[in-house]
Design a protein that fits this description.
The chain has ten helices and no strands. The protein is mainly α and about 180 residues long. The radius of gyration is 19 Å and the shape is globular. About 40% of the residues are buried.
């Protein structure tokens, strides 16, 4: 609670110093000394510490905060309680790599998580297509956006969620932008 109140007051460095050491609780094996609630509290502390580190990095452009963000997001990936949380952490890690100028590492990180047809997998795939295009591989980006749009169409999925349909629309739009950039009118 102290870390959360420090975060809400904008005392990001103090919040980080309070929350970051609690992250080890999320990896504790469940036994008579460690309850599931303690693990969840450790995971939540890491998530909030990550937000602090990211905000501090964006404010200061200090590479130490970028490194701290990366370390925390990898801890989140390793100690995620379920696959959905893990994929969210992978997406965050890819954004952190991109922000740090390591776009190719972000693409490589996303590749294994871009296989499914759920919202998070498709989000990983969308980010991967964006990153590939930003690396100058327009044709590959165009093709990837096309595949995503096809996967997200009502005809290929039948009854589908609005989020997936929205991703399909975004993929079609992004594909159009890349085609325009490649002068394929």
């Amino acid at each position: 609670y102290l870390g959360l109140s420090q975060f809400r007051q904008g005392k990001l460095e103090a919040a980080f110093a309070t929350l970051e050491p609690l992250g080890h609780l999320s990896a504790s094996p469940v036994n008579f000394n460690s309850s599931l609630e303690i693990q969840e509290a450790g995971y939540q502390s890491m998530e909030l510490a990550l937000h602090c580190a990211l905000q501090l990095y964006h404010q200061t452009k200090d590479e130490d905060w970028w490194s701290a963000s990366l370390a925390l997001v990898h801890q989140l990936m390793d100690s995620s309680p379920d696959e959905k949380s893990r994929q969210k952490a992978v997406l965050q890690a890819a954004y952190i790599y991109r922000d740090g100028g390591e776009t190719q590492r972000a693409v490589e990180l996303l590749r294994p998580y871009s296989k499914g047809q759920d919202v998070l997998s498709l989000s990983c795939r969308m980010l991967q297509a964006e990153l590939v295009a930003s690396l100058g591989q327009l044709e590959e980006g165009i093709e990837e956006y096309k595949k995503i749009a096809e996967l997200c169409s009502p005809s290929s999925l039948g009854k589908t969620s609005r989020e997936i349909l929205s991703l399909g629309d975004k993929a079609s739009y992004s594909r159009g932008e890349l085609l325009y950039s490649a002068e394929k009118y």
